[in-house]
Structures are given as structure tokens and as C-alpha cells.
Amino acid sequence: MGPELSGSVAIVTGAAHGLGFALGRELLGRGCRVVLADRDEGGVQVAGETLRLEHGDRVRWIAGDASDAHDIERSVALAEEAFGPVDLYVANAGVFQGFGLDASDEQWTTSWEVNVQAHVRAARLLVPSWLQRGGGRFVSIASAAGLLTQLGSPTYSVTKHATVGFAEWLAVTYGDLGVSVTCVCPMGIATAMIGDASESADREMRSAAATITRAGEVMTPEEVARQAIDGVDRNQFLVLPHPEVADFRARKAADIDRWISGMQRHRRATDAAVD
């Protein structure tokens, strides 16, 4: 087990809705002081006011872009002013866009900025101070797509692989120097991201969403948040809320050609179901 989470100062990005909101609530429930950050100004205000009613004055909120270095600095400054130095950063904000080879350069750029560079910029700001202070915690909310693949969306698949790769690099480079790194890789979560994709007029987007919902249980944000923070509390690197991902990953490593053939069958079956 790691140091007690209670009393820690945490920032959660993408915290207005879904998993980010659930992560903020989970951390508050464990005694943390939390800054919620999200580009949805109205949404993050509602989220903050809701959690303040539940947990009192241990929550603040700020509107900003998780991939923008200046906005990351603003969220850290708010946390320091309200509560003290940041102990824990949860890089949760993400985008699910860009389907097939027709994914635009803009969609590739946005996916890279939000799903990867947001983590890099936050770590660049926080890790040096954690090394000086003797510790800190960085949490990357990635995806099973970063260990396996994401049918339909090359942008999501590639950037989530990069998210996992960066988290691994952080852990290898700083994990024995006091910086605990946790990488969370769930499959389907019952959030607006999946719901919107499932209802899209874009067939490829619907198919991509269906590959997620057909692959296994679609978990609640609250359950994924609980397992994620349990992993943080244990100083665990890889958290797999859907345990079957470990088996899928092992099959991929053992015989990747066979695994690719299986994924092709899964793609064909999903496409037929969507049609």
C-alpha cells in the first residue's frame, strides 16, 4: 500500500461528466482535496457545486483545456492557492474521434493533443517538484485500446497506445524516485462518449462504439473510478477494471497473427450487426 490518500491534493481533468466526475467524487470520498478541471465551463461548475454539497469545502473547479500548458498551470495554481502543493494528478480528459482512413489531420492533431500531450505537459510541470518534495502520483486514464486496439478509430487506437507508452516511460524513469504512476485501461464505460457514438449517423462511428459494447461488460463510471483509485492506493502500475483484458493481452503477445485474425472476425461480425 502507498501513503494514505486522505489529505492529498488532487487535480482531475475531464471532470465535468462521466468517469472524470466519478474519479473526483471517489477521491473526495477518500478524504482528498480536489480541483475539477474541464473545458465545459458550465458542466464543471455544476459538477463542482454538486460535489461541494456532498463533501464541503474540499473541492474547487476551473474551466480549461487539459492539453493547454497555460491551463494546466492555472489548475495547479488554483490547487496550490486553495489547498497546497499538488500530490496527485489524474489525466483523464480524452477524445474519441476520427474513424477510418478518412480521419482528418485536425482529428489526428486533436486526438494527439488531448490523449497524449496533455499527459506529457502535466508531467513536465509536476514531476520536477515531486522529485524535490520526495513524492507524487501521476494517473493516466488510458484504455484497453492502448493495449489491444480500437476497431474503427485509428486516432483513438494510436494515441491510447502512446498514452500507455508514456505512462510506462514515466514509471521506469521516476517510479523508484518517489513518483508513483498508475495507468488505467478499461474497456466499455457507460458514459456520454460511448452513448453519442452509438447513436451517431456515421456508420463507422457506430461500428467503433459497437466493438466496445460487444467486447464485454459496460461498467459504470463509479466502479471504474473505485478500481482506479484502489490501484493508486496500492501503487499499482496497470489497472484493468475489465480483468479479461489481461487474457486478451496475453493472447496478443503469444500469437499476434492469430490474434489479428480473431480481431478481423470480430470486426466483420460487428459491421454486420451495425448494418
TrEMBL record:
This protein's record includes keyword Transmembrane: no
Enzyme class name: oxidoreductase
Domain of life: Bacteria
Keyword vocabulary terms for this entry: Oxidoreductase
InterPro entries: NAD(P)-bd_dom_sf (IPR036291), Sc_DH/Rdtase_CS (IPR020904), SDR_fam (IPR002347)
Gene Ontology molecular function terms on file: oxidoreductase activity
SUPFAM superfamilies (UniProt xref): NAD(P)-binding Rossmann-fold domains (SSF51735)
One Pfam family this sequence matches: adh_short
EC number per UniProt: 1.-.-.-
Keyword Oxidoreductase: yes
PANTHER family noted in UniProt: DEHYDROGENASE/REDUCTASE SDR FAMILY MEMBER 7B (PTHR44196), DEHYDROGENASE_REDUCTASE SDR FAMILY MEMBER 7B (PTHR44196:SF1)
Protein family (similarity comment): Belongs to the short-chain dehydrogenases/reductases (SDR) family.
Name of this protein: SDR family oxidoreductase
Species for this entry: Prescottella soli
